[in-house]
Amino acid sequence: MSWKKISLGVLIAVAIIACFIGFRALSNRFLPITSVRVEGNFGSNETVNIQRLLTTELQPKTNFFNVRLSKVQASLQNLPWVASVDVKKVWPHELVIQIDPEKAIVVWNRNDFLNAYGETFVAKIPMDEFTSLPQLIGPDDSSVEMLSDYQQMSVVLAPLHLSISQFAIDAANSWSVQLSNGVTVHLGNVQALEQLKRFVKLYPKVFAARATQLQEVDLRYAHGMAVRWK
Known about the structure:
Elements: H1 3-30, E1 35-39, H2 44-57, H3 69-77, E2 82-90, E3 94-101, E4 106-108, E5 112-114, E6 120-121, H4 127-132, E7 135-137, H5 143-157, E8 164-169, E9 175-179, E10 184-187, H6 192-207, E11 214-218, E12 226-229
Parallel strand pairs: 1-3, 4-7, 7-8, 10-11
Antiparallel strand pairs: 2-3, 4-5, 5-6, 8-9, 9-10, 11-12
């Protein structure tokens, strides 16, 4: 191989490297991230949190090539009310961020919320939405099981056109269910669903005519029940 060929190869390599360095330098100057589009259904408080976080993540020298999408995504995902995040670049200077917030199924232990998987999260939601959600109260480690029980009981109560306003489990593991008509039903920690089915079966015959006067029904008896009227 001649020195001329070697020199030509070196010159080409140097030229390619120089072009790359020059392109990166120009991109740093002329292709900064100047537009961030955030899409999703969330409130003004959440918007402030997002803006504050993005201001930290996207420094003045952030451009189309050096922006770390995975880092931006991970930071947003850590917000307690966020379910999922998708971040992508749009040539030549835009970031598009899609944020899906957690959807509250029930209020958990008076302050937090549960999503459809029984996972707890913290969020600020309008008061009217907060008060319309069912309340679940129980041991901290029982959210998944209680949500499942709540859903099963809701199915059992459906024929009566009644829903659950509050479902609580006390220290003795006894169940207390407050219905949408204000009636409280007490269930034992064994065969609670079967006890509730018995209540649903008896309701049209025993309670329907005096439903507005009914206050509590205690089904924690093997062969009967205790009833309290207003």
